[in-house]
Design a protein that fits this description.
With 290 residues, the chain is of the alpha/beta class. Helices cover 37% and strands 16% of the residues. The chain is built from twelve helices and eight strands. The model has no long low-confidence stretch (mean pLDDT 95).
Length: 290
């Protein structure tokens, strides 16, 4: 584990694996410790950031700094600490809000951007209940479907109880097996509603500004999505990728919101292939400060 001070003095932690140029990872949740990412199925070189107030990172003096747009400064402080002119950056789920905001504000500091099952609120893509229902109904042959779908119906009707949210958990995974259930148990044990509310508090999102900025982003972008992900149905994943001028979409058949758990080999092959394929393109770009 490594540590560094962010711009406001908050001490933040990160976890590094591998010796090559790392893929810097921003976890989702929102506001979950990065441990649930593991090694993303076997990606050889990673830096996982524990967001402020999570994992091994310190609690900030100012709770307003939990806002996702303000945590961009933490990613920039990490880049400086690592001594990199540019970072290859991955955001998973709600962590994509920080990653995309970072790319919008610091386009010349992004080498490659990977968005894994990104939550689309940062770019203002609305997902209707009918779209989620269409994806969910593909799982009718699963043994857990009747109870989980009934809970979804109750949520769509306005009952947002914890029991209903827990019951629809299988819809977030391509396979509701022991691995997925263990992952879900870990992530739910860390849930802190106050941090979630702060992450998306007033002023955190500005979709028009973000869309305008990413429309000019020259860095290569990979958006990884799952065919069964009710959080980002396939047609919305296509629309999300279309906001970037230099993006490609990789769709995992029968995959969910955690594609490295559903098919680790596919995920690693897809991500490392993208990074290798675009390395030359990154090197041809104008050097930072040039």
């Amino acid at each position: 584990m490594g540590g560094f001070a962010s711009s406001d003095g908050t001490r933040l932690a990160y976890h590094r694996s591998g010796q090559e140029r790392p893929l810097v990872c921003v976890p989702g949740g929102p506001m979950q410790a990065s441990a649930y990412l593991g090694d993303l199925g076997g990606v050889p070189s990673l830096v996982r950031l524990d967001l402020r107030g999570t994992g091994e990172s310190a609690t900030p003096a100012d709770p307003a700094t939990y806002r996702c747009d303000r945590q961009v400064d933490d990613v920039e402080a990490l880049r400086l600490h690592l001594g990199l002119d540019r970072i290859d950056l991955l955001g998973h789920s709600a962590g994509a809000a920080v990653a995309v905001w970072y790319a919008a504000r610091h386009p010349d500091r992004v080498g490659r951007l990977v968005l894994a099952a990104p939550t689309p609120s940062v770019v203002g893509l609305a997902i209707a209940d009918a779209d989620r229902r269409e994806v969910a109904e593909q799982r009718r042959n699963e043994p857990w479907f009747p109870d989980a779908f009934a809970a979804f119906e109750r949520i769509w009707a306005g009952d947002f109880s914890d029991a209903n949210w827990n019951c629809i958990a299988p819809f977030h995974y391509g396979r509701w097996d022991a691995v997925s259930q263990a992952s879900y148990a870990t992530t739910t044990s860390e849930y802190d509603k106050a941090l979630v509310d702060a992450y998306y508090s007033d002023g955190a999102l500005d979709p028009d500004a973000v869309r305008a900025a990413v429309a000019r982003l020259t860095a290569p972008v990979l958006l990884v999505a799952g065919e069964y992900d009710v959080g980002l149905p396939p047609k919305h994943a296509t629309a999300y990728a279309g906001l970037f001028p230099n993006a490609e979409l990789a769709m995992l058949p029968r995959g969910g919101h955690f594609p490295w758990l559903d098919d680790p080999e596919w995920f690693v092959r897809t991500v490392t292939g993208f990074l290798s394929r675009t390395a030359g393109e990154q090197n041809r770009r104008t050097p930072v400060g040039g």
